[in-house]
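#onboarding

Welcome to the new folks! Below is a worked example of what a typical request in this channel looks like: someone posts a single protein sequence, and someone else replies with the predicted structure as tokens. Don't worry about understanding the tokens yet, we'll cover that in week two.

Example request:
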Amino acid sequence: MAGKIGNIVFYADDPVALSVFWAAAFGYEVRRFEGELRDMLLASGLTDADLATRGLAEDPSGVGPRLFFHHADGSKSGRNRLHLDVNVQVEGETTLADLDAERDRLVSLGASVVRLIEQKWGPWPELYYQMRDPEGNEFCLQ
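Example response:
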């Protein structure tokens, strides 16, 4: 039996705001703790303050992994030990113009650009942006 990804979890200073960024980046839906789910969580002893320390974004098609956002107990320091590679969705081969358009969209949502990488790794060309989400988590746009 092999495992399957349940959630990709981000620690965040503002889990709800970061869930909004990544939902917009991937075309996911932000999930709120509302209605019956909220009532159930509150009945179990959680408070509204507890619910504010979590965020959730889900693929509306149910295919992609769920993104879960948990309040961090301290500031981020250093580089991520794991990062996401975000693929630009275009027909055919991705061009620099395609990357630039998606880079600009993500920057308008709150991301920042670290640098553009254009190099070869062995026989493979590499063309991607190193970026950071609004809380400084690194990701690559390729």
